[in-house]
Amino acid sequence: MKFTKKNDLYLLLVVILLVLVMIVINAYPKKGINGAEVYLKGEKILQITKEGTYSIKNDEGELLMNVEYIDQKVRVTDSSCPLKVCENTGWVENPNQPIICIPNEIIVKPLGTEDDTGIDIYTW
Amino acid sequence: MVKRTKTISHIAILTALASAIYYVESFLPMPVSVPGARWGFSNFPLLLSVVSGISVTNTLYIALLKTLLGSILSGRFLSPMFWMGLGGSLASALSMSISFKFTNKFGILGISEIGAFFSNAVQLIIASLFIVKSPNIFWYFPYMLFFGILTAFINATIVNYILRSVNLDRFKS
User: Fold this and answer.
1) Closest CB to B108 among A3, A42, A90
2) Smallest CA–CA separation between B156 and chain A, in Å?
3) pTM
4) What range does the domain containing B144 cover?
5) Where are the domains of chain A?
6) What is the CATH number of the domain that holds B116?
7) Which terminus of chain B, N or C, has fewer Cβ atoms within 10 Å?
8) A96-100, B71-75, B102-106, B156-160: range with highest mean pLDDT
9) Which of A85, A105, A107 sits opposite B136 (nearest CB)?
10) Rounded to a whole number, what is the distance in Å from the CA of A50 to chain B's nearest CA?
11) pLDDT for residue A121
């Protein structure tokens, strides 16, 4: 069994190209946001339009996370999940980038100032 | 009978190795914040089992068992991350076996890359369909894919060194 064959390098090039193209597409709509929507398990539970800090609670009233929206940027602070991926995502000002917390099944989706174009790219 | 015993021991050893790595891996921090992503070093026993030529069913057993045992050990059993990991490792086992058995075009690195690609793709599909119920999670696909490439390279290197020093024909079923 050989470590690499010629096809492996082609495969690697194709995948790297795919990654670069998708990163460029992701970075394209760099506009400020004018609010955010919070989804819990696929259902919309909160619409954020004013600046401030919002607490997200589940049906039992347990605190899951705090969402901060200031200066056309949104971020998550104080999440109850173990790995804190959503906190480490930091400030988000790209309307296509959601903040996702897998353990709590929460999406914080920023709302763009323009029409939401490019969503078709993600559903393939 | 001897053959069967050999197969069982092969599965048991690789499963033990993979679930131990799965557990230890959960302590490693991820350098970027991608939801639900892990390093994925526990896929190297899968790759080893694919390239050492044991059957597709046995490879799928290893994939299933390592996710079950590893997630019970690390306390993620039946959590959303468990389902993503299960789908990912089954998909990578299947795609690696198919690319090894039915095409003779890829080396160890290529098979590893194919496994990483399908693992990441299926994980995100599962997450977007059942967990967060939104296609927006595909925003993170290129970043996961990038780490998949790195991990696949490391896994392939490990397997390459193992194949050089261990005579795996003795374990073949």
Assistant:
1) A3
2) 8
3) 0.84
4) 1-165
5) 33-112
6) 1.10.1760.20
7) N
8) B156-160
9) A107
10) 23
11) 47
Cβ-Cβ contacts under 8 Å, A106 against chain B: 132
Overall fold of domain A33-112: mini-chromosome maintenance (MCM) complex, domain 2 (2.60.320)
- Is B75 contained in some domain? yes
Please give the residue of chain B at the shortest CA–CA distance from A106: B132
pLDDT given for residue A122 in this prediction: 46
Percent of chain B with pLDDT over 70: 96
Q: Give me the interface pTM, i.e. the ipTM.
A: 0.81
Whether B163 contacts chain A with CB within 8 A: yes
Beta bridge partners of A48: A36
Q: How many domains does chain B have?
A: 1
Name the residue with tokens 């392939």: B156
Q: Could you identify the residue written with the tokens 């609670």?
A: A57
